[in-house]
Amino acid sequence: MGEKWAGLAERREAAADVLLAVAVLAFGLPPVLFGHSFPDLPFLAVPWWAQVAAVCAAALSMLVRRSVAWPMIGATVACALLAGETIPLMLAAYSMTAQNTVRRWPWVAAALAGVYMLADWASPYTDRLPVALAVRAITLIFLPALVGTWVWRYRTMIRELRAGVRAREERAAAQERRRIAGELHDTVTHAVTVMVLNAGLIQDTDELEEIRKLARNIEDKGVRALTELRELLTALRRRDLPPSAESVEGIPRLVEESRATGLRVALHYDVPEETLSRQAGHACYRVVQEGLNNVRKHAPGADVQVVCEAHGDVLNVSVVNSGKGRAVPVRVPADAGGGYGLPGLRERVAQLGGRLTYGPTREGGFALTATIPLYPPDPCEV
Fold it and tell me: Does domain 166-373 sit in CATH 3.30.565.10?
């Protein structure tokens, strides 16, 4: 679409230049051909063919006025001095500033005004009052030049605004892609990780009832993941959370699922669920989910402490593992999350006005902590 509009703009500009050239011919040739122009300057005899050539050169110079100014300036000066036609001078004064093809345009405009005064003085159809000549020259040369400067500044402003809009659109598209990637990561990784762990536990047990329980867990997580994906794809069109998006009330269930897969997890939960915004609650859920997934992958035998509590107007969430503990016979690929979880989670929390930090602890474990406002700011105000 952008290339189409650019092509239309170029054709429109070319058509305007052709029309200007035709206008110069229409205004300049009839007086020369029918003897109404002044054929001779007081100091120079000008044959008619030279006048016709000067008018044609001025007309042709209109076709290149957007790229270079000096052929147009020279041709219009010759047209004014040889044929007495001053309209091309006004077009040249406007074009050189509207296209910004002359650096020190006031000096060039002053020279064009001098040529205009000379041509006006030599014309037998106008008075030769010096003041009137100067007023006409300044008005008809400097005024088009000033209008041209305004046009150039306006076009520059429009280009800058369009460039800014494109840059904002690209940033918004990149942010949306990151948001979608984060949602897909958070939705899929947790479910797949739990399914892999349960599948590993099935291989290590011979009890039929335990196998059935683990198989049901795998089925439940798979069905839930599919449901969340369908709702996510629908909700992403509206930038809303899907109906199945978990909030803080899902954190105890996350802890129970982790305990069922062999993790030793302690939970401290003190959150006013009824006053918590849906976005903040969902972000809190994702923090705990990501923290427990990372413990499963990197420290499956460690003791884990999950804290989710409100202090004032903020919600403090943390998942801390000791880095020590018994080994467990379950294996999860280290690259199962693709390395996108924590950076995407940090961006999610930052969009709500919160802060996410993570890193090793002095005891050799790992801590994931977040501070999230209970009432995130409106995205339109950020």
Answer: yes
